[in-house]
Amino acid sequence: MMAPGTLGSDLETTPARSYDVPTMPLPSITWQDVQQMPDDGNRYEAIEGDLYMTPAPTPRHQTLLLRLYDALAALLRERHGGVLLVAPVGVEFPSTGEGVQPDLLFVSDERRRIIRDTSVRGAPDLVVEILSPSTASHDRGIKLELYERQGVREYWIVDPDEHVVDVWRFGEEPAHERFTETLPVKLGTERVGEIDLQAVFAPNF
């Protein structure tokens, strides 16, 4: 008679298979995977195979976004320079499977072909990101590198706390400038006007 809790000696047992979890390769996340994420008010992005989530924006964030959009749109309407789009809109980089959802972007007539029915497929001329406590290091680090690597011509980082805009221009002569009072706006090398940053950063109410 077998003792309780034991198996008979005539039964073979298979040792449990072990997994080395820390070294197991994780699946690479692509923009196509992001399209399957729930519509829960958050923004999801795929960069270098990793998934990033940005919480729903605050009223302050949205106020700055709309003020920047209005200021840019007024300048661009006079020049008929291209298409200005505001979040949420996807920007896909097909060659690497990456994709993001910037706060604001501009596509010149020269690059208009990258605008599709469901997303922008390729590098916009201008990308704008408004910092929040949860995204600041992300926007200043991995996204900065992404936009330079993918051929975005100009990247604005808007800091609501410091009331400054950092402008990164990529290409043959990369440059970085910081603006606190007025922000020059260019189409290529042509200056088309400027934005009053004191008005943009004014209190909401």
What ranges have pLDDT less than 50 throughout 5 or more consecutive residues? 1-24
CATH superfamily of one domain, by name, is tt1808, chain A
| Termini separation | 83 Å
What's the pLDDT, averaged over the residues? Answer: 87
Task: Look at the helices and sheets and give the structural class.
Answer: alpha+beta
CATH architecture of one domain: Alpha-Beta Complex
Outline the biggest β-sheet: 6 strands, mixed
Biggest β-sheet: strands ordered side by side in the sheet? 3-6-8-9-10-11
From the structure above, extract its key features.
single chain, 205 residues, alpha+beta, tt1808, chain A, 6-stranded mixed beta sheet, 3-stranded mixed beta sheet, 13 strands, disordered N terminus
How do you describe this structure in short?
The protein is an alpha+beta fold and 205 residues long. It is built from five helices and 13 strands.
Explain what you see.
The structure is a single chain. This protein is α+β, with helices and mostly antiparallel strands. It has a domain at 58-200: tt1808, chain A. The chain contains five helices and 13 strands. It has helices spanning 31-34, 59-79, 136-140, 142-150, 197-200, and strands at residues 43-47, 50-54, 82-86, 91-93, 98-100, 104-108, 120-121, 126-130, 154-159, 164-169, 175-179, 182-187, 190-196. The strands form four sheets. It has a six-stranded mixed sheet, with helices on both faces. Strand 4 (91-93) and strand 5 (98-100) form a beta hairpin. The relative contact order is 0.13.
